[in-house]
């Protein structure tokens, strides 16, 4: 009730009214808001009811139990609503259904219910990249990559797949592993024969409310009407799947640029697609069902390039990806998720539960440049993917958007190329220069505005997005930073007849510095807890060439639709890590999910191809809340030396420390687990994680905070590791003991780390702890926040 009332007051602004009117309006708004809230309690909306771990049993009996639970809160005169949108019965229990707010509240009080939350829509967080990772590792790849087996199965939860593409051919692959329990669902445009020994499974989901209902002869009850197909109509799922495990494809390119051999991170691995998303996003209930199915089907790794907005993050037990990933980890499945595209602000990283492998996005050593040539001969190298027919022999009039504003349109709107802001008579035949001071108007919209005004091209001034090329198809387009933009504006203002031309895109190889953190990549600390350092790692996510659906959109003149696309986003970074995880898993099939994560984190690179520390796209130094442990190095991860194994008990202790009640945690775990005595959020830093984050280091009296870690030797039997510390000025970091001696593989050893501030400034500081035996360097990065 209170929330509705506050929202109404915020929208209507009573501070603009007289005192008498103010009082009258306040009375009216209270009355109206109470009515609205009361009404909202009666309107049924989709909710997810999560009921914890499953203990076996008959699936039909479990669905009947879910229907019985649902019928206990729905009034008898609305029994037609006793139906399940989704039912979860493989790795965990629960269902989704249409509920009113009151009914949801009632269910949340049931002893066997862990959480009830609205079925939110999650967002998609949308080659050369693998060669770049191999080169940066400094290790020759053929011998090491020959270790890979083809028994690793990656489940992709996304928008579907285009199975005919060569990236999904199964040439040379052996029979499908006998442990596989999945299926290849048919649709009107998808046959069982579209699956093969590479694409071994494909499912799709409907969000119909009537998916599961009790038997009924009532003619007013809707019948099941299944529809759909695993086929991708967006391109996102096809792109992520081929990035993770696409087969090798020679002579791949996007209309002649980014040419070479396209391949996934683990070309020998199998793929299973779970189509849970469309262009509009992904229903939470459907994503949760897809994870449940993937676990039961027998995947080894799950790749999820979707997530909530950082503004609307839920707690760990009201987040479908967090819930599903926890139970996947219980079954030994590595879950890799994109960290989100809400950067570069801090506290924007999503999918940040400690049992999720969270990925940031970076650039690679390739750039796409579109040169702008002014009438005076000056040249500016902008960023874009365009296949225009412009050449230096013909120039076109050049105009600033604000100078060709439509009648009664503010100059500021026209300069941003708002829809309807440009006078077509003034803009026709000219190249427009627009700014991007309002990010709510996307580059695609600005380009459409220029095209609609019959402009000959567009130059966009945007300091933030300039490193991420926009694909404008055949329309001449180039993006520049503010310095170049100011020079072009000065030219316009100082020349009687300014002119320019925008040349087609050229590929620039061996671009430096790379990698760099992408501007859009979400940053830590995590909003839910700062005691786990997130993101975990970063991987290529800018201008990634991979397979995509053939589309007529933006096809250059005289060309056929490409079966490849160049996309950017943490969506693209995520499958790089999933593929790397599959590669490590294929060499070490008995390693747990956390062992694979540890190997990729502790061997990650923190330098670029200039040999210097990693930076952001702006050139500023990057910190570990930007990069995580650093850029993944899959080849190095094959031999990490020692690893940090984070167990299910660690994750359950985390839930205790975070503040969840013991009974809820037992329901989640499906065991008689008991929380430690006196759990506290301060103890989260001591769960056995491959990185360290101290959310609150007290500066008074130079207090000491101690965390502990346990490592397992996966290297040579007789190994001795010594420690070195890279600590920021004013922070004392002491590790005890300073030597770890191992006499056999699988042997464990523990150590403590003391953190003490002396002259350190308030806020976060960063450093690392490195264990080395001469052959291996095992790096644990840390972030410490001085209060």
Counting DSSP H or I runs of 4 or more residues, the number of helices is 19
Which bin fits the share of residues in helices? 10-25%
Secondary structure class reads alpha/beta
Describe the largest sheet. 8 strands, mixed
Count the beta strands: 40
Q: Unreliable segments (pLDDT under 50, ≥5 consecutive)?
A: 1-39, 139-146, 208-227
* Mean pLDDT value: 88
Radius of gyration, whole Å: 28 Å
Distance between the termini: 37 Å
Shape: globular
As a percent range, the share of strand residues is 25-35%
Describe the fold and architecture.
The structure is a single chain. With 787 residues, the chain is of the alpha/beta class. The protein has 19 helices and 40 strands. Strands 17, 18, 20, 21, 22, 24, 25 and 26 form an 8-stranded mixed beta sheet that branches. It has a 7-stranded parallel beta sheet with strand order 7-10-6-13-15-16-28, with helices on both faces. It has a 5-stranded mixed beta sheet with strand order 33-40-39-35-37, with no helix packed on it. Helix 12 (443-452) links the parallel strand 21 and strand 22 (457-461). The longest helix is centred in the first third of the chain and has 22 residues, at 19-40. The radius of gyration is 28 Å and the shape is globular. The model is unreliable at 1-39, 139-146 and 208-227 (pLDDT under 50). Residues 150-609 form the Peptidase S8/S53 domain. This is CO(2)-response secreted protease-like. InterPro entries: Peptidase_S8/S53_dom (IPR000209), Peptidase_S8_Ser-AS (IPR023828), Peptidases_S8_3 (IPR034197), S8pro/Inhibitor_I9 (IPR010259), SBT (IPR045051), Subtilisin-like_FN3 (IPR041469).
